[in-house]
Amino acid sequence: MKKPKFKIIQGPAAHERTLEFPMPRGARDGRIKSGLQYHYFGGTEEEWRHKTRGAGGWRDRDWQRKKAYEAEGLAAAALRVKTDEGWRVDVAPYSWEHTCQVVARVLTSTRVQNRFGYIPKVTIHTGAGRRVARGGRVGSTPWLCLPVWSRTDLVILHEIAHVLTPLWEPHGRLWARTYLELVKWELGADKHKILKEAFRTKRVKFNRRRVAKSDGFFLAE
Ligand SMILES: [Zn+2]
After folding, report:
1. Which of 1, 136, 155, 183 is surrounded by the fewest CB atoms within 10 Å?
2. Spacing, Cα 97 to ligand 1 middle (Å)
């Protein structure tokens, strides 16, 4: 694995580490371009909010969470690694240092930067005293909380997908699509296929919602 370059800053809070990434030559912007995600899926953020509206008013904002977790469990069981003793389920968590390396590698990858823009830094919490893994942003800085149990490829990419997608619909289509893409880019086509099949089995939606556009109105499918 090629080691990514970054500067480590301890803090701002205890149990937190901030990684600063040097700006690559010709980088487009110093911030995550959230608008790009909507463009990529077609439409503006306003249109996306409209599209996620259910028939009886606003949908539960985290409508896919349970299904997404179930699918991830299925995929994790299917993702086995070969060791000297044979095949085993890949659940051994990474060390803290390796976890930081993985996060840095993903956020500075050419594919992520081409889609989301240059990301200048990320803050990672060790998860000390916390049970839940999280991904989001504090101000415009990506923030991850990765307790020991969560330091596996799938969970780290799950949380990074939150960092890169709208937080008003945490496990929505944009998130699911981005998660799948990160898995494809980082873990390869085989693992991508496993997660995609798990999403299909558990009916996690990851495609653009089919809507008919007519005179500026979106008509639900
Ligand atoms: Zn999540």
Report:
1. 1
2. 22
3-state SS of the chain is CCCCCCEEEECCCCCEEEEECCCCCCCCCCCCCHHHHHHHHCCCHHHHHHHCCECCECCCCCCCHHHHHHHHHHHHHHCEEEECCEEEECCCCCCHHHHHHHHHHHHCCHHHHHHHCCCCEEEEECCCCCCCCEEEEECCEEEEECCHHHCCHHHHHHHHHHHHCCCCCCCCHHHHHHHHHHHHHHHCHHHHHHHHHHHHHCCCCCCCCCCEEECCEEECC
Which tens digit of pLDDT belongs to each residue from 70-125? 998 888 877 765 556 665 555 678 999 999 999 999 999 989 988 888 888 999 99
Expressed in angstroms and rounded, the spacing between residue 214 Cα and the centre of ligand 1 is: 34
- Ligand 1 centroid–CA 185 distance in Å is 19
CA of 175 to the centre of ligand 1 (A): 9
For the entire predicted model, the pTM comes to 0.82
How do the domains of the chain map onto residue ranges? 7-207
